[in-house]
Write a structure and sequence with these properties.
heterodimer, A: Rossmann fold, eight-stranded mixed β-sheet, 10 helices, B: about 575 residues, alpha/beta, Pyruvate-ferredoxin Oxidoreductase, domain 3, Rossmann fold, 4 domains, 19 helices, 23 strands
């Protein structure tokens, strides 16, 4: 039987054959199913890029907006209707490059949303340029002498900002990825899952095998509540740790806004009290 | 030196930032209004927190007043720098009041604010003493002034209230004595003004937004647009409005679009440079057919320009911003009443036509304070255009007038898919090029539907005019006073509270005139360009100002007279 989150008809999907996005899509559908979420209450928000096309291929509501701009949109959707499960999804260039400033401030703001970043260390939709997470030495049509800049470490950055949930997974390990996704969606606050994913068309350096060789699962007894230890863990590279690196409890954006302190209803269900408006206007006399 | 000001006086308070000009204004304004006299204040100030040379003009009149004057009848100088700074606005007829020792202006009237403040308890009370002096000069009743001061400072504790009351009493007595000494200001109260409101332009737009059901406000601080953000924040707890300061204007506009998508009525407030960063998001609103309300409070550019000054140079920016073709609506209030009316209407229009609506104001409008009759239609509920979705809902279904019923996620069984790509009716990205053209047409039809609902331009003066003065936004009040000063029966003023899509009536009004004169605070006559394009009528004559200050009645009247 088809999942409620999938389409019955065959989709014309714009990804390359063999792309890790297919596995991530299947895993996301399975995670949503297992969480038993009502389809009408799920909203996907994305920007632009190959990963950001994800909402187009799930049978949910979505806002597929501008490159780099998913996070302010997603935060606002959740803020106006906390009954919705909001998932922002995009690639490394979308979220860490074009959207870098929003990424930092969304972490500070801490809306109760999940953030899934497909991290394939390369630009796919624009055909093979370097990403903020590209490893040094990678040659591309634009970085002809090879990448020389330090890669952005999204997990360390997120933990430095005291993000409330920071995890990493791998598209080649669907069981692990599904668990990370479910935890992230259930987590109260902004939950980042950086998802390693091979790009079969443009990244010959960081292949499926490379990710497999260069990552390992965190041990069972790892304590994600210790921020300093988590930060140290986030600095580990080649191999990179997979799992929930850091978790904490923080006030969410919706709580901080104060508009739900007296009234739990989403904003659209409310009506302005015009008698109070009259009183307010006339108080200026 | 005996002087009589009958029924009308223009005061100015000038000094450095931090010397309490605003505090004086905050006391005098409500007291003038409560006395039944009409009031206008307009501030000009430098982009700095302390020092410099700033001033506020205050007009007190027995008739409604909404114009800025260049000439100053009575100047309260708090600092010696004030006089050279105000330059040509001071004439030999201007009375200068202040501490003679400090200001040293020949023939000035000594008003010992520091001494009065010291007597009341310290230098802290100088502003209240100066305010009291003005109230005394204006013959406002001392007991009303004292009662108001006690009320005004009550929240700061009984000591502050009493000391300020003492400063008010001493200042008032000194001002009244100056009146008896020869400066007589006789301004008859207007019985009809009793129930009037006292609001700034930002207040008027904020109250309009409130009445329009605005429940989400986001922004990034930028002069002179911040005032509206802060007004909305001040209302937020009482009315459950979500208010967020975002990391940058790019985030601001995207957050507002996300809020509308989820069913809120969102407002952003910004000025030119901040709005420039929103252009990409504006285009998203165009593609996704998202409602959006943008308060664009203009200041002189390009780039940082003059951050705290006024101009009308961003009409073309609002008109042409955003990549691609998509419809929009531009509104621009010319009075406090229109600030409220358009502030409210913007939300209904954005929701009804699913497009961005601009409220264009400027520093002069936003920061001016005036008394005005209570706003009309206070009980009217916001118009709601959101629908409950059913299974198979398609967000962008093609319709005759281009408007597809707008659902929001979580309200109904449908999936609400909003897309920045060209898309099909369901909201999925599509490269069906035939459909693309139909979607462009659909969006264009929304603009046409909006034009059919446009507010017509408003004519002030005789229907059988020969000369037509054209203006938009904040120039209205001053232009009306300038026209009145010219005293000609063949002269009318046409003001456009709804600028774009240009209302159909514009062409007829323009063609009926023998002579058309465009009056704008911009160097490129952007309204004239817009009207020429829309009506085919060229506007031959122009009076333009772009020195960062608003038009003043005297200078504007003289400039128009030269063209008649």
């Amino acid at each position: 039987m088809t999942s409620a989150f999938d389409y019955e008809q065959k989709l014309d999907i714009g990804w390359c054959p063999g792309c890790g996005n297919f596995a991530i899509r299947q895993t996301l559908i399975a995670a949503l199913d297992e969480l038993g979420l009502e389809r009408e209450k799920v909203v996907l928000v994305s920007g632009i890029g190959q990963a950001a096309k994800m909402p187009q291929y799930l049978n949910t509501s979505y806002l597929n907006g501008l490159h780099g701009r998913a996070l302010p949109v997603a935060a606002a959707v959740k803020a106006c209707n906390p009954e919705l499960s909001v998932i922002a999804v995009g690639g490394d260039g979308d979220m860490y490059g074009e959207g870098g400033n929003h990424f930092m401030h969304a972490i500070r703001r801490n809306p109760d949303i999940a953030l899934f970043v497909h991290d394939n260390m390369v630009y796919g939709l624009t055909k093979g340029q370097a990403a903020p997470t590209s490893r040094p030495g990678m040659k591309t049509p634009l970085q002809v002498a090879g990448v020389y800049q330090k890669p952005l470490n999204p997990l360390a950055l997120a933990i430095s900002l005291d993000a409330s949930f920071v995890a990493r997974s791998f598209s080649g390990d669907p069981e692990h990825l599904k668990e990370m996704m479910k935890k992230a969606i259930r987590h109260k606050g902004l939950a980042l899952v950086d998802i390693f994913q091979p790009c079969v068309s443009f990244n010959k350096l960081n292949s499926f095998d490379w990710f497999k060789r260069n990552s390992y699962r965190l041990p069972e007894d790892y304590d994600p509540r210790d921020r300093a230890a988590a930060f140290a863990k986030a600095l580990e590279e080649e191999p990179f740790p997979l799992g929930v690196l850091y978790e904490s409890e923080r006030l969410t954006f919706e709580e901080g806004l104060g508009v739900y302190a007296r009234d739990p209803r989403p904003l659209y269900e409310r009506r302005r009290d015009m008698a109070k408006v009259r009183e307010e206007v006339l108080s200026r006399s | 030196m005996a002087r009589l000001f009958k029924d009308e006086v223009t005061l100015a308070i000038a000094g450095q930032a931090g010397q309490g000009i605003q505090s004086i204004e905050a006391i005098v304004g409500p007291l003038v209004k409560r006395s039944g006299r009409h009031y206008l204040s307009a501030s000009e100030f430098m982009s700095r927190v302390r020092g410099g040379a700033n001033s506020t003009e205050i007009r007190v009149s027995s008739r409604p007043v909404s114009a800025y004057r260049e000439g100053i009848d009575l100047l309260v100088a708090l600092h010696a720098e004030a006089l050279p700074r105000l330059g040509k606005r001071i004439s030999p007829a201007t009375l200068v009041v202040g501490e003679a020792e400090k200001i040293g202006y020949p023939g000035m009237i000594d008003a010992p604010f520091s001494k009065l403040a010291a007597e009341a308890g310290g230098a802290l009370y100088a502003s209240t003493a100066a305010a009291g002096y003005l109230c005394g000069l204006l013959s406002l009743k001392a007991e009303d002034c004292l009662a108001y001061i006690r009320e005004f400072f009550a929240r700061k504790g009984p000591e502050a209230a009493e000391r300020n009351a003492a400063a008010m009493r001493l200042g008032h007595a000194a001002g009244a004595a100056a009146g008896e000494g020869g400066i007589r200001i006789e301004i008859t109260p207007d019985e009809g003004a009793k129930g009037n409101l006292l609001v700034s332009g930002s207040d008027a737009v904020a109250l309009g937004a409130l009445a329009g059901g605005c429940d989400f406000v986001c922004g990034y601080p930028m002069s002179p647009a911040t005032a509206l953000l802060e007004k909305m924040a001040a209302l937020s707890e009482k009315f459950d409005i979500a208010v967020e300061q975002v990391e940058d204007e790019v985030g601001v506009v995207n957050m507002a679009i996300g809020a509308w998508y989820a069913g809120a009525r969102a407002l952003v407030s910004t000025s030119g440079g901040g709005f420039a960063l929103m252009c990409e998001g504006l285009s998203l609103a165009g593609a996704a057919e998202s409602p959006l309300v943008i308060h664009l409070c203009q200041r002189p550019g390009p780039a940082t320009g003059l951050p705290t000054r006024t101009e009308q140079g961003d009409l073309n920016l609002a008109l042409y911003a955003g990549h691609g073709d998509f419809p929009r609506i531009l509104l621009a209030p010319g009075s406090m009443a229109e600030g409220f009316e358009l502030g409210r209407l913007a939300f209904d229009l954005a929701d009804r036509y699913q497009l961005p609506v601009f409220i264009l104001t400027d520093q002069f409008f936003a920061d001016s304070v005036q008394d005005c009759p209570a706003f009309a239609g206070l009980d009217r509920e916001p118009e709601r255009s959101v629908v409950e979705t059913g299974p198979g809902y398609r967000r962008y279904v093609l319709t005759e007038d281009g408007r597809s019923p707008r659902g929001i996620p979580g309200y109904g069984k449908g999936m609400v898919r909003a897309d920045s790509h060209e898309h099909d009716e369901s909201g999925h990205l599509s490269e069906d090029l035939e459909l693309r053209a139909r979607m462009v047409d659909k969006r264009r039809r929304k603009g046409e539907a909006a034009r059919a609902a446009a507010l017509p331009p408003r004519l002030y003066g005789p229907e059988d005019y020969r000369t037509l003065l054209l203006c938009w936004g904040s120039t209205l009040g001053t232009l009306l006073e300038a026209a009145e000063r010219l005293g000609r029966k063949d002269l009318a003023v046409l003001h456009f509270p709804w600028l774009y899509p240009v209302p159909d009536q514009a062409g007829d009004y323009l063609r009926r005139a023998r002579k058309r004169i465009d009056v704008e605070c911009s160097s490129q006559a952007q309204l004239a360009q817009l009207l020429h394009g829309a009506t085919g009528c060229a506007i031959e004559e122009k009076v333009l100002k772009y020195d960062g200050l608003p038009f003043g009645t005297e200078g504007l009247a003289a400039a128009i007279e030269r063209l008649l």
